[in-house]
Every structure is written in structure tokens, then in C-alpha cells.
Amino acid sequence: MLIEKDIWVNLEDNRGELRLFKIGQGKKYNWRKHKFELSILIGKPYYTFYKIDHEDKISQVDQSYFSPNDEEQVEEITKTNKEIFDRNESQKLKEDDIYQLKQQEEGEDIIKKLIENSETFEKKTEYSQAKYLKRKKEKYLFCFIVKPTTIENVQKTWYKDNPARINYFREDTLAIFMQFAGINQKANILMFDNSYGMGLAAVAERLDGEGILSLISHGKHTLRDLVPFQSMNFNEEIIKSIQLVESYDQFLESYSHLLICGEFNLKEIFEKVNDKLTNGGVVVVFSSFLEKLGELAELMNKSQKYTQVVLVDTFLRYHQVLLNRTHPRVDMDAYGGYVLQAYKIE
């Protein structure tokens, strides 16, 4: 599959940072103090690696340049760091010297000279040397891989860059939300979404144009305003399956799914649209606040019209996986919100 003009792509750099860009002819993009064009990518395959030099020119590189396995190759430690003291005096090059190098040299040459002028590099353990190289490559090299946009990498990009914009809709919570929804073809879905279209994009992808998706917009936005949705490069069939409804008072059809992403007046929604949900219909609600979902669960139980009312918390922890150095990441996000699921029986 080749990259085309005027579509969104996902870029991941050698620091693990993610960006979403729409490829345009002659358009300039800013990232990591560089300003560059991406028109060179048009007609090229996905999952190709590129680097940007100090003059902001893009060239293709191989995978080893992008993700060297310096740390993974360390199998045995034969030294210790007991004779090394952090006095900030081991580097012979001064700040002005490094600045000049950055203006004139490529990242590989800067790293080489930093190692040559380090009094302690050769004394470090093999693991410490690998970590040192990794840090310097992240700082002085700028390379990236081009990927097609998917729900997973679009969500990760927004969650890393601006989690509040998507209402802290974390990837594992989104996965549980979609699992609970159990969307199938020909479904008729009523949806409330203030996750900037993140939930809408996931539901639209799963429905794949084979059903009806009604989004309550309250007249505040159009599909064009929802960047996560737009960045999925959906075809016309999927876009046409989505209808914007300004108010649920105008929604007269019966529906098989009620899906809510984010913070709304859940009691009001329950009272207004409950009768339009078909028997056997499913309700799935994501919220950052346990109390709001607890109150909704209590309403459902009291109405005796719902069964299997389930309220779950989510937990996600990333791990570093390296030989003899596998452990949980210390920068985990402990908060992912809550998800409620229920089935209507009457």
C-alpha cells in the first residue's frame, strides 16, 4: 500500500513521540525544532524509515538506524561504575562547541565526537554505555517511521499529546468500551460523544458503513471538526452512514445500541431515550467519574428494565522487557476512567 496525497499518516520518531499529519504538496510541518515538507512520502510504501538532517532535508534510512538494539545486545556486565563520579567534568567539549557542531554536523558525527571527548565513556559498564548511546541518539538524531492511521495509533497520539482533548479516553478503556458494545453489521446506534470524535471513529470503523450511526451533536460541531475522526481516512460509504442529530428530542427511531463517551447529564439521557432502545439493546457508557456511572447503574436497577448491569474500572501498566532488566515502567498512567454496560430486557 502506497502513501497518497491528501491523506493522514501517523509518524513515530526515535524518541517514541507520535504525530498525525495530512500529506499535502508544498506544505511545511513543524516538529522537534525542524520545519520540513512531507511531499517526498507520496507514492512511497508505508513502514518506511526516514531521517531529517540539520538542514531539514529528508532521506530514507534502514530500520537499524531508527531503532538500534544497543540495550538489548548487552548480555553480560564485565565492569562496574564505582570509579565514576558525576561531577559534570567528564565531557571535554563545551556547550558552545556542541552548539557549533549542531549547526554544521549530522547527528551521527556529533555523537561520535561526544564519545571521543568523554573521559568516562570507556570506563562505564556495557549497560551504561548502551544507555548513554540511546540518550544521545534520541537527542541528536531525528528519524521516523511512516504508518497508516489506525484507531490504536490515533488514540495513542492524542493521549500522549493532549489527553484532556479526548476526555482521557485511554487505549485499554477504549478497547473495553468496544468489547462491551458488541457492534455488528446492520446495527442502529445512537451515540453521544465528547471525546473529540475518538469514540465515534472507533465505532464507525467497526460498523464499516453497514448500519446507521446517529451522533447527537447539539449543533456544536460537524464531522470535519473532529480531527481524530478525520485522520482515519474513512471512505464515503462510512461517512454517509453517520447522521448528525442536533437533539435527542428529534430522534424518533428505535435503536439497538446506546453508546455514550464522556461527560453528559446521564439521568436526562436515560429518561429521554430509554423508551426508544429495543429489547435486548445494549447500553455502554464511558466516564471519568465513578459517581455518575454509579447513579446511572442505580437508576437502571430500580427501573427493572435492565439486566447484567456491570460497572468496571480499568488498569494498564507498561513494562520494559530486556534481558535481566524486565520491570514495570515507572511512568505509568494509573487513571483510565470507568465503563458501564447493561442490556435492556423490557
Straight-line distance between termini: 48 Å
Largest sheet: 7 strands, mixed
How much of the polypeptide forms β-strand, as a percent range? 15-25%
Rg on CA atoms, Å: 25 Å
Give the CA-based shape. Answer: elongated
Assembly annotation: single chain
How many extended strands?
16
Question: What's the topology here?
Answer:
Layout (H helix, E strand, L loop, with lengths): L7 E6 L4 E5 L5 E4 L2 E4 L11 E4 L5 E4 L1 H4 L28 H10 L2 H10 L9 H15 L2 E6 L2 H11 L9 H11 L6 E6 L4 H10 L4 E5 L10 H4 L5 H5 L1 E4 L9 E7 L4 H8 L3 E11 L2 H14 L2 E8 L5 E2 L6 E2 L9 E7 L2
Parallel strand pairs: 8-9, 8-11, 9-10, 11-12
Antiparallel strand pairs: 1-2, 1-7, 3-4, 5-6, 5-7, 12-16, 13-16, 14-15
Helix pairs in contact: 3-4
Explained architecture:
This protein has 346 residues and is α/β, with parallel strands linked by helices. It has 11 helices and 16 strands. The chain has helices spanning 63-66, 95-104, 107-116, 126-140, 151-161, 171-181, 198-207, 227-230, 236-240, 266-273, 290-303, and strands at 8-13, 18-22, 28-31, 34-37, 49-52, 58-61, 143-148, 188-193, 212-216, 242-245, 255-261, 277-287, 306-313, 319-320, 327-328, 338-344. The strands form 4 sheets. Strands 10-9-8-11-12-16-13 form a 7-stranded mixed sheet, sandwiched between helices. Strands 2-1-7-5-6 form a 5-stranded antiparallel sheet. Strand 3 (28-31) and strand 4 (34-37) form a beta hairpin. Helix 3 (107-116) runs antiparallel to helix 4. The longest helix is centred in the middle third of the chain and has 15 residues, at 126-140. It is elongated and about 75 Å long. The two termini are 48 Å apart.
